[in-house]
Design brief:
The chain is of the alpha/beta class. The chain has 15 helices and 20 strands.
């Protein structure tokens, strides 16, 4: 087992080289030992798994460890991650984990844990390598199979009775991920006869595309279908474990998460005037403009679901989202990231407004933004050194405003640029925005000049798309 699988938000790696199935028994013991100490009154563990080829094997090893330690397992079977989160709230059991590698390719797998990130995962890593587990129990725990998946589907349908039987001219791309298990029965239950399910069979090899809908190249089949058949009004892509969703306009444009959050915020503000909305540091100024117009309170947080959830709790926010298309609704929901629920909220907005997604997006103040740019570093230590060194340069300048809650976001008179270290990979992340193309070129050049000592010149120019 490689140390690098213990990441900021989960445990994840390539099966067979980074993550070894035969050592997942000890991994299960480390996870159960940590969670039982964190929640000493809990005697049961909720466990779900996605449809990857090795998820069943990981499940067997991890649940064997949990039951050997004397805890019961509530087995949700193959399901999306939001079903595990739903079970936490429904059963009031905080010790829960999901076997998944989310949007990664099929050779990856791992574990997400409810309410666990950062230093807590570092503690689990230490427990794993030192084998500092709690003692095995005299009486082995049991495994109870639970029908929470059906309860979840019925619950979602009950939240949107006004959408039943309406004409939803949509393509929903499950990408052969765990969402397939929910979307097919949900579409039937809602009576959406005009909705088309794309790649709706669970296949852990992901034969059609990687299960990340935020990458336009992965959505090319849906884009082609929207182009060829104008009866479809929108496409919706789900990631591998369904904690994210990303829509596509009928013109084939993948919608950035911050712009979609702006649409959700307009909807939430109707019933919660002045509500707080949390967004991540990568979000566009267009979103802040929308929130200002709405009279909502904008709270900018570091990127990452744990930071977003902490900010939501601290500021009692009704809504939150990230550029990466994680969306969190406290308005009419539980406050965790659920791509299927977010899809229903989008369909509701399209139905009640009578407008297309393109028309709704056109109502958002327009700026020129780059996508998130990711540049690989030579090793994991380099990324933070680069950010720290460039932060010192910007901090010495008096002609800009610097936000340093997550890397650096430098606001100049002609635009802003962001540089941060990835929480999960040896990568630096960049994003740029301005009101015009000249300003965008200037802000890109500011960062390009400071990054030149660390990267190949041509690579840097290509990545930043410097003209």
């Amino acid at each position: 087992m490689q140390e690098n699988i213990f990441r900021e938000y989960d445990i994840r790696g390539i099966v067979g080289t980074e993550l070894q199935i035969e050592t997942c028994y000890d991994l299960g013991k480390a996870i159960a030992s940590y969670l039982s100490r964190k929640h000493p009154g809990s005697t049961s563990f909720i466990v779900g798994r996605d449809g990857r080829l090795h998820s069943a094997a990981l499940y067997e090893e991890i649940t064997r460890a949990i039951t050997d330690l004397g805890f019961d397992v509530i087995d949700l079977g193959v399901c999306p991650t939001p079903v595990v989160y739903f079970a936490v709230n429904r059963l009031n059991i905080p010790t829960a984990l999901m076997i998944t590698a989310s949007h990664n390719p099929g050779e990856y797998n791992g574990v997400k844990m409810w309410g666990v990130s950062g230093e807590q995962i570092a503690t689990i890593k230490q427990l794993f390598f030192t084998k500092d587990f709690i003692a095995p129990a005299a009486t082995k725990g049991t495994i109870q199979h639970n029908a929470m998946l059906a309860t979840y589907i019925d619950y979602l349908a009950s939240l949107f009775p006004h959408l039943k039987g309406i004409a939803i001219n949509a393509i929903i791309d499950c990408g052969n991920g765990a969402g397939s298990i929910v979307m097919d029965p949900l579409i039937k239950l809602m009576g959406w006869h005009n909705a088309t399910l794309l790649f709706g069979e669970v296949d852990g090899t992901f034969p059609n595309h990687e299960p990340d809908p935020t990458v336009a190249e992965h959505m090319h089949v849906m884009a082609q279908m929207l182009h060829n058949d104008k009866s479809y009004h929108v496409g919706i892509g789900l990631d591998g474990d369904c904690d994210r969703m990303d829509p596509m306009t009928s013109e084939g444009v993948v919608v950035p998460g911050d712009h979609l959050l702006a649409l959700f915020a307009r909807d939430v503000a109707k019933t919660h005037p002045g509500a707080t909305v949390v967004c991540d540091i990568k979000s566009s100024g267009s979103l802040i403009d929308v929130l200002t117009i709405l009279g909502a309170k904008a709270c900018v947080a570091p990127s990452g679901h744990s930071h977003i959830k902490n900010a939501m709790k601290k500021h009692n926010a009704m809504l939150a989202g990230e550029l990466s298309c994680h969306f969190f609704f406290h308005d009419r929901y539980f406050g965790y990231d659920d791509g299927i629920y977010a899809s229903l909220r989008l369909i509701e907005i399209l139905h009640t407004s009578g407008k297309t997604l393109t028309e709704l997006l056109a109502e958002i103040p327009q700026k020129i933004s780059s996508p998130e740019i990711r540049i690989a570093c030579k090793n994991d230590n380099d990324k933070q050194d680069i950010v720290n060194n460039i932060k010192k340069v910007f901090a010495a300048r008096t002609d800009l405003e610097l936000i340093t809650i997550d890397g650096i976001r430098a606001h100049m008179s002609y635009g802003w640029g962001l540089l941060r270290a990835s929480n999960t990979q040896p990568v630096i992340c960049l994003r740029f925005e301005s009101d015009n193309t000249d300003g965008l070129s200037r802000i890109k050049n500011d960062f390009y000049q400071l990054l030149l000592p660390y990267f190949d010149e041509q690579l840097l120019r290509n990545k930043i798309e410097l003209t």
